[in-house]
Amino acid sequence: MQAITIGTAAGIDEIRQRLDDEFRFLQEEGVKVRIGQSHRGAFAFLDCKVDGDAADRSSQMDALLRHYVANALSDVIVEKWESDLIRKIIRGSYSYFSRDEQDLIADYTGRTLSGGSDSPHGYKVNRKSQILHRLRDYFDTADELVLEGFVNFRLRDYIEELEDAVDRAVDEFLMEREHREFIRLLRHFVEIQEPRIQHVHVLLGPGNSFRLLDDDGGAIRSEALEEFVVEMVESEVSYEDLLISALITLAPRALTVHVSDRPPGRDEALETILGVFGDRTVRCEGCQLCSPSQAQACEPSQATLHH
User: Fold this and answer.
1) d(Cα 84, Cα 81) in Å, to the nearest integer?
2) End-to-end CA separation in angstroms for the chain
3) Which residues are 27's β-sheet partners?
4) Which residue of 78, 142, 163, 216 is 20 to 30 Å from 307, comparing CA positions?
5) What is the pTM of this model?
6) Confidence class of residue 254 from pLDDT cuts 50, 70 and 90?
7) Residue 240: which pLDDT band, with cuts at 50, 70 and 90?
8) Radius of gyration in angstroms for the set of CA atoms belonging to the chain, rounded to a whole number
9) What is the model's pLDDT at position 29?
């Protein structure tokens, strides 16, 4: 039976470890695979061959060996090499970012490739499956593989997928950086502005709705706010922008944000309020003021907004 040879310029130990893990399954079936190691210049090579009498078995054993080798290598590429490939892409295409910024972009890329919190592993499994299929096709006609060359020339679609993920991560990073700078400027403006009202209750309702109430539970009314509401509702603005702009117009000394009607999970409106108003803000997750019965009892007003 012909040996299968794997070459690489880096990470030979982790490849050997992963091959040992795979071949342990064969050993449990009474088949021992011997791994020899050699060097040619900057490259290290692993020769994988079925040992002893098992070498004389059918071609089915040869196919099984190739499958286990391909499975080990696909795992190494996705689990071990992928993060380095991403950083190489970032260094090549976005070298003008600082090292810390490149690290953040790499983190964003990882989240993009995971497919989000709903399916943290599914996308990685798909990538590994595609690479495994490509490796098995390769081993149908070849007994020697240099892993770097295989990744660079036989997995161009995989590399392009990583490049697209990096590009999307850069866009996300730039938008979040711009948002953080905007929040910082708003916070500075709030800090230097004289408060116009002592306390505002912000009731964040389901969907894109909120109420601004005083300490007695009544809708806050002011000429400046009413003029602002009419102007903003007629404009193309987001719900979050409308809420923050209304609060800045009121310039409260303190805020209590009621979130009992909000679904669990990340709440961007709440995060923005905390970012702009900082320690002026208190979060309430359930009280008489924000209970569903109280919310229904409140009469709609121009301080009750849906957008």
Assistant:
1) 5
2) 71
3) none
4) 216
5) 0.76
6) very high
7) confident
8) 30
9) 78
Residue 280, token pair as written in the block: 């002026």
Residue with tokens 């470890």: 17
Identify the band that residue 269 occupies on the pLDDT scale cut at 50, 70 and 90.
confident
**Residue 302 pLDDT > 60:** no
Token representation of residue 6:
């794997």
Secondary structure (H, E, C), the chain:
CCCEEEEECCCHHHHHHHHHHHHHHHHHCCCCEEEEEEEECCEEEEEEEECHHHHHCCHHHHHHHHHHHHHHHHHHHHHHHHHHHHHHHHHHHCCCCCHHHHHHHHHHHHHHHHCCCCCCCHHHHHHHHHHHHHHHHHHCCCCEEEHHHHHHHHCHHHHHHHHHHHHHHHHHHHHHHHHHHHHHHHHHHHHHCCCCEEEEEEEECCCCEEEEECCCCCECCCHHHHHHHHHHHCCCCCHHHHHHHHHHHHCEEEEEEECCCCCCCCCHHHHHHHHHHHHHEEEECCCCCCCHHHHHHCCCCCCEEEC
For tokens 């919310």, the residue is: 295
